[in-house]
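Input:
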Amino acid sequence: MKKLNFTFLSALCTVVALFLMSCEKNEVDPNIPEGAKFALALSPYGTESLDVIVETDNIMEGVISAVGNGIEQNGYNGYISYNNTLFSASFTSRSIKAYDLKSPLTSRGEFAFEDELGVTTTTDENTLLLISGRRDATSAKKITSFDMNTLEKLDDFSLPIDLEEDNDLSAWPTGMIQRGNYLFVSYFQRTSQFYPVDTDKAKVAVFSYPEMEFEKQITDERTGTLGIYGNNNGLIETKNGDIYAYSSNSYASGVAPSGNPSAILRIKNGETDFDPAYIIDFENNSATQGQKINFMHYVGNNKVIVRKIVDDSELYSAFGNSENAKAICEFAVVDLVTKEIKNVSGAPKHWGQLMTPVLVKEGKAFMAVSNGEETFVYQIDPETATAVKGAKVEGLELKGIYSLSAN
Amino acid sequence: MKFNFTILLFLFLGLSNAWAEETLKGGVFDEKGEPIIGATILAVESKVGAISDVNGEFSLKLGEGTQIIKIQSVGFQSETRQITISANINPPYLKVTLKESSEELDELVVYGKSLAEENREKAYSIAVVESKKYANVSVNLNQVLNTVPGINIREDGGLGSSFNLSLNGLTGRQVRVFIDGVPMDYFGSALGLNNYSANLIENIEVYKGVVPIDLSADALGGAINVVTNRKPMSFLDASYSIGSFNTHRASLNAQWYNPKSGFTVRTMSFYNYSDNNYKAGVRITENGVIPPEGETTEVERFHDAYESSMGQVSFGVLERAYADELMLGFWYAQNYKEIQNFAQLDYLPFGQINRKEKNYLTTLNYVKKDLLVKGLNTKAFIVYAQPQIINNDTSSRKYDWYGNYTYRGAEDSDKGEYKGKKYLTTTSKNLLANVSLQYAIDPKQQVAANFSTNWLKRINEDPYRDLYSEAFSEPQFVHKSVIGLSYQLKLFKEKLSTTLFTKNYFFSIQATNMPENYLDEPFPVDFSLDRFGFGMATSYKLSNDLQLKISLEQATRFPEPEEILGDGLLLVSNTGLQPEISTNANLGFRMNKRFGAKHKLIVEGNQFYRGSKDFIRKVARTFNSQFQNESNVSTLGWEGSVNYEFNNWLTLGANLTYQDIRSRDKDKSYYGSRIPNTPILFGNMLVNVVAKKPFQLPGQLGVSYTSNFGERYYLNWSELANDKIDIPRQYVHNLQLIYSNKDGRYNTSFSINNIFDAKVFDNYRLQKPGRSFDLKLRYFLVKQ
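Output:
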């Protein structure tokens, strides 16, 4: 009988122990600082399939980590913000979650888009326009408008720009601006295998707005394809209504370069054609000497921050966290009016990035600098063209920095 | 005629170590003169034994001298006879009549163990499921396996849905599945475990972490061997079940055996169909807005049907001088699966996407004990398989959850419900061969060798993707071989049994890879690798009731062609993928004890460790996914089970598994996190009551209640973020009634699964069926 008791007891102990082990801490205290001032979307080390949005007080000091902290995003997402709303787009679930940019961050809803996300913009009527389409097929793109407040879909239109089914060619958008009665979409033509073709000219499709009827295609042979895959910044608009477009024309940004230089073009306010008198030849310039634009972001005062490519030897090497990624980027500041290009000092060579990695606050730009091992926030002063190292981010990529308003 | 099925499961030690001089022939009969099948005839001193056949007859080779022969059978009192064997004189025919006994249970304990029990006592960490218990119930092998401690099967939905089996924390391809020792790696889902009805199967052996050399494949985390009925006997086993969601399942398993010539014809076949149109909660978008978490609408799944069928015929001989078994078999299997939606995308239903598979197999099996030399046992097989898989997504319709649809556009180029249009056909040719030899040096020592080889040629075609297909339309060749050697030693009156083994793995692949970089040309992939593995398994019997076991293995698994080369679609290649290596250890005990005549208690516990290097894991990337090596993953787990039987009519059982699988890669932010989307704690419970002659009716009635439990776990790395997505805790309760008549010839069962209609998820946002009903009829005849 003694043996029986022992056995029963040990069996019972095993079961109890197993249950106890399972009852570990499930809830971690929300680690959000009271009245956090910033939200950062980051990919922790080793996660190509998970992003976390964390909140913090200070982006210039300390260490920002997603361990036990932040809101899990469903997949490797793209981020963009308009009008104090942060949109987190999941490529896995083909949906976008909207967060009010106040602390603590709370989701105010989720909406679906079709196929793969292309580019977005906002309109005068405070609607969100989104172009999506099939990345791995030859088909028309679709433009959908959403109410920014209710997130409801308002309308959609087919966008058959540069579609040549028989030749396996279709467009991929790289930027979109609504200005007055027109919608401008920069794009490149490519095969279903995502091989850009016809790369020796800049192309913009012009649509009437809000009817979304195709008006015309404008091209410019002074530079190459406009914008880059995975970014909205193929077209930007300055305060006076001028639209600027850039061509990267680089392997690193995914395009076999044409003979034309990486450059910035303009569509003047009120016009629907490229300004033939305006070009900034970024590549052939004493400050850059053959370097190319990877990405540009308007920081006000007619200035853009440029992430430039200093070594264009490898395809796709400027797309953030990927196996091709190389630390081949540096910063520059370009004055769109005076055409002056100034190299930014104080930041090391680093990776390129997807989506919108710039926060402009009080005249300063805050950007992520990652080299695949370490990631830091850098503060860039566009006036002095200097960069200062800020907080360390525990992750391979810092995909967006957002300012939170006090609640 | 008296027939007792259980007794056929008996195994006798020392069969192969006999001194054979003369053949004693005889017959065993009951008091009415009916032959007793499966009675055991044992020469006590020389430990030579035999089992009576369907005519009650047996033959036994005995050495010279006086022999004590013991004849016994469950349900009968045993008899002893003294026989004198002289050289060159055939002993007289021995006719034995056994008297019925009421103490059959005790006989069982004293005289023998079931084959399953015998296996369980092997030094390996093994679970043996006797499918017989489930034969009358409408369950498939997956459901049976899911009750084994340490095993967790996660299904996407209803009948035929894709599933993922994990064994002690290792999962998918890391665990190899065999049917009668034949690895199923490349046979596709048409022959997947979820197609087999439990009555087609004799038993299932689950080797945890450490795999004997005769189950020869590059298994990282263990192996499951499904064993079909191969005994020399004639039988017919036919079943049909009908259930909720227009589910029909039929199976036919039959064998005709001629004891005189040994000629045998065997057939095994199944047919399964279900609409799977159960109701599931999904988020339905309104004007594009996706409702918040938890605000789901119940809809009927409308494009989730599954159909599978398989037919197998084999013929040859059993129990001949030149072969214990020599059988040639032909198989054909096919299935069709509609795809309703994908994980996570619950608001995006499809109405046309489907997947079709078919497979032709030819098999040749040879088994012989005492080949040429006494004590040399051999087993060999050759299998040639030709599987084909078609993934079909060519519709331009866009569906909603009510089955309504619109068209994407008139353009032919805009077809395909999920991504671009595809009709991808994967055709393979697969040749497998295995030879296994065992030699008993003496009763204490045994050596064994095993050689297996596996050749695969695979080619993909898609008429809509010729632009893509350049690379993956070139054939891929994969070759794997494993050579295993083992030595077994038994000491201290067989209380201690130790097996040491080594395995040498060879792997090669030749293929053309599609570069991710469109500027590069497709390039050849051609490499070979070899790895060395080793392990040991030891068991020690502390007493007749209690056994301790330790087993260790350093196991290797090579990446599959798909893992290296992708599928030409959403899975991209990774030619740098390394083989995964795991150090597996198990420490366990098993207690099988009787208390008095009526109580039986079986308690098992096992602690397992898996230290995996270059763990292969599918990683979702922005637009596609890729298999990658996770440098360091460790698993520490415990599993325990308790079973109590009372007086042969009540069974209570429970088991629980806890597994702690974490990343140990210090370079990652998720260092110390649990591996994403992996269950942590799960278990099962069983109450089974059997009533003989219920309500004055003949036959017996069984009522069984089972429940499955799964604790909540996270979809992503556990230590990252604090506002997290999880898969909630769940309980499922099931009830079964089984009525058997005429010694198990006619069987009827009625099951209610998921009695409380719980919302059950194995995978995020893929709800499994709610309450369902099943009625199964089975006819089982053994005979002449």
